[in-house]
Amino acid sequence: MPRTSNTTSVEALNRANAGKLPEHLGLEVSVAEPGRVVGRFSVRPDLVAHIGYLFAGAVLTVADILCAYGVSTVWPDGASGFTTAEVKCNFMGTLTEGEVVVSATLLHGGRTTQIWDAAVEDATTGRLLAVFRCTQILLYPRT
């Protein structure tokens, strides 16, 4: 993992959700530790598509948010920001009700890039619903 002096708490991430898309989605962060962030959200009628299943975009968005929050747990010293370079999501299942838990973990923590994976599961059964991977590019001040 990259050397970092940054610390991020569950409370700080949940405060960051307020008034923004994560709050609208009902995302609640439960774990924030170096290289790992976990959160959950409930399947609600406004997150269900016209065909009766959870919107794929809601799943992808929560996975992306938690991976982005993860960058803040292993932020390399000297970095000034980051941006997403690529995302990929494979879906194996969906829900019509219940709760979803998403676990984001650092796969590669370089000085210029980070690669994050997220497992999306049914919180009740543990059944895997989707896997997500993203590449983050770390930004540094121009000198």
State the CATH topology: Thiol Ester Dehydrase, Chain A
Order of helices and strands: HHEEHEEEE
The CATH class name reads: Alpha Beta
Provide the helix percentage: 10-25%
Largest sheet: 6 strands, antiparallel
CATH superfamily: Hotdog Thioesterase
Low-pLDDT regions: none
Summary, kept brief:
This protein is α+β, with helices and mostly antiparallel strands and 143 residues long. It is built from 3 helices and 6 strands; from the N terminus they run ααββαββββ.
Describe this structure in words.
- The chain has helices at residues 10-17, 21-25, 56-71; strands at residues 28-33, 36-42, 81-91, 99-109, 113-122, 128-139.
- With 143 residues, the chain is an alpha+beta fold.
- Strands 1-2-4-5-6-3 form a 6-stranded antiparallel β-sheet.
- The longest helix is centred in the middle third of the chain and has 16 residues, at 56-71.
- The radius of gyration is 15 Å and the shape is globular.
- The relative contact order is 0.21.
